[in-house]
Amino acid sequence: MSLINLISEAIFGKDKKEKTARESAKERLHLVLVNDRAGQIAPDFMPKMRQELLEVLKKYLPIADDDDVEFNFARKENTDIMEMSVSLEKTDEKKNIE
Amino acid sequence: MSLINLISEAIFGKDKKEKTARESAKERLHLVLVNDRAGQIAPDFMPKMRQELLEVLKKYLPIADDDDVEFNFARKENTDIMEMSVSLEKTDEKKNIE
């Protein structure tokens, strides 16, 4: 099963625990990086990389407040999983991009 | 359960189907965007946004060949899940970043 199907099933699965993940996915944009070789991103570059990724997302998505960025990091079996989530503006119309 | 724990459990879970996802996570960097408001990224901007995200990743990670980019997209219950994966160079030493 591909990663995207796994994640999609994880978020939209049936049992209780997935429901909480779906609630947490609400109103926020989540960017997840799964890097198979742990430790490759030098810790001091992580904040810079995160900020640059955020700058790209801000161009295309109605990010409400880029100070409201949550960041999670997990390392398991030589794989780094970095998650960044930002709040989305309440308005529904698409951001007009110059 | 937070999204990162769910994804981490999904990749490193026990049963058979997760194993194939772990295999597919191997040797590749995966970037997953979970956007709670489907359709917010105008389709014509998706390729541009993807390319710009890739440019950021290339600065910090030993991406082998940025033509070897796999892209998956799923839409479920008003949520868009976009996955981009790129192959990582075989070398282990960290990329020296100017």
TrEMBL record, chains A, B:
Transmembrane segments: none annotated. It comes from the Bacteria. It holds the Pfam family MinE. Prevents the cell division inhibition by proteins MinC and MinD at internal division sites while permitting inhibition at polar sites. This ensures cell division at the proper site by restricting the formation of a division septum at the midpoint of the long axis of the cell. The gene is minE. GO terms for biological process: cell division; regulation of division septum assembly. Keywords: Cell cycle, Cell division. Belongs to the MinE family. This is Cell division topological specificity factor. NCBIfam families: minE, PRK00296.1. It comes from Succinatimonas hippei (strain DSM 22608 / JCM 16073 / KCTC 15190 / YIT 12066). The lineage of its organism: Bacteria, Pseudomonadati, Pseudomonadota, Gammaproteobacteria, Aeromonadales.
